[in-house]
């Protein structure tokens, strides 16, 4: 029985994809697998037998990735599974940043006892007049799963769209509308665009990337949308830009103490992926990835180990080896099988930064003594007989 611990509420439609060989009611201390959404895991004691963590979402800053890698725990996320939900929130943010709907609705609430509210509204509405987004310039920073969808939706709404991503993949490029202009220098987006939306991951290299220099380049009255991560925007610089009018509206999915009282700011309580469909899609994707890893040894969408797949094993056995990415590792592994007279029918090795992963299909059942030999060798993190 494979024990699965759920640290948050996980969609039942996702959990239903586990077969009878999985127990989804396990406690963390007994877990072989973990499913998590937002629970903070940095201070948790993880069991030695834990094989993998499935993050039902994209961000993984709540998971100790390095510690997991050192313990041989593969961490998966689900990029793109909630992309449509976030895209729709960004479109809502575009409209809210163009038309003063929030203050207008507040006026109605404040005057709901007015017997002449219909007539008075005709006079009051001038204070809430806005502009249309059609024909305006939108800059999209980050052209991953969400950024692509935002670009294409904005094109459909008649906007002039500029996309920036120095790491634009071939697949992403194919998915983008031909009407999206690919920008090579992000400063051109700051200078030209009426609206700017950010869709990059939170990393040390992106922390505070929208700072004073960026704000100084922006057009007066720009609308800035941040449904990615709060740390991407330098908060003191943002506050100054809003107060001076450089930023006409800041719309974000992240509430922080410094901006809750900031004027011309609309704050959502991290609602981007909070739809029934997104939670279901993320859960299904996470469960499929965990099952594929447990049952076949395949790694897809890991954030701390490389992707490495060999389909379903059709030989006598399959062995999975998590190890450090150092010279001579493959020979150390293969020599152990060769010395025992085991023929390797198929093999795949992939690396990612400091870590690597090797899958081997054998024509014979994997001998226990060979597994122990490999486990004892330097820079081996974990060895698992998948079949």
* Overall domain count: 3
CATH architectural group of the largest domain: 3-Layer(aba) Sandwich
Which fold does the CATH topology of the largest domain refer to? Answer: Rossmann fold
Major sheet strand order: 8-7-6-9-10-11-12
String of helices and strands: EHEEEHEHHHEHEHEHEHEHEEHEHEEHE
- The count of DSSP E runs of length 2 or more, i.e. the number of strands, is 16
Q: How large is the count of helical segments?
A: 13
Structural class comes to alpha/beta
Q: Main β-sheet: number of strands, strand sense, barrel status?
A: 7 strands, parallel
Descriptive notes:
- The chain is an alpha/beta fold and about 375 residues long.
- It contains 13 helices and 16 strands.
- The strands form three sheets. It has a seven-stranded parallel β-sheet with strand order 8-7-6-9-10-11-12, sandwiched between helices. A five-stranded parallel β-sheet has the order 2-1-3-4-5. A four-stranded antiparallel β-sheet has the order 14-15-13-16, with helices on one face.
- Helix 12 (about 330-340) packs antiparallel against helix 13 (about 370-375).
Essential attributes:
387 residues, alpha/beta, Rossmann fold, Alpha-Beta Plaits, 3 domains, seven-stranded parallel sheet, five-stranded parallel sheet, 13 helices, elongated
Give the helices and strands, then pairings.
Blueprint: E1 2-6, H1 12-15, E2 22-23, E3 33-36, E4 52-55, H2 65-70, E5 74-76, H3 83-96, H4 101-110, H5 117-124, E6 137-141, H6 145-156, E7 160-164, H7 170-175, E8 181-183, H8 186-192, E9 195-198, H9 212-217, E10 222-226, H10 235-244, E11 247-252, E12 265-267, H11 276-296, E13 317-324, H12 329-339, E14 344-352, E15 355-362, H13 368-376, E16 380-385
Parallel strand pairs: 1-2, 1-3, 3-4, 4-5, 6-7, 6-9, 7-8, 9-10, 10-11, 11-12
Antiparallel strand pairs: 13-15, 13-16, 14-15
Helix pairs in contact: 3-6, 12-13
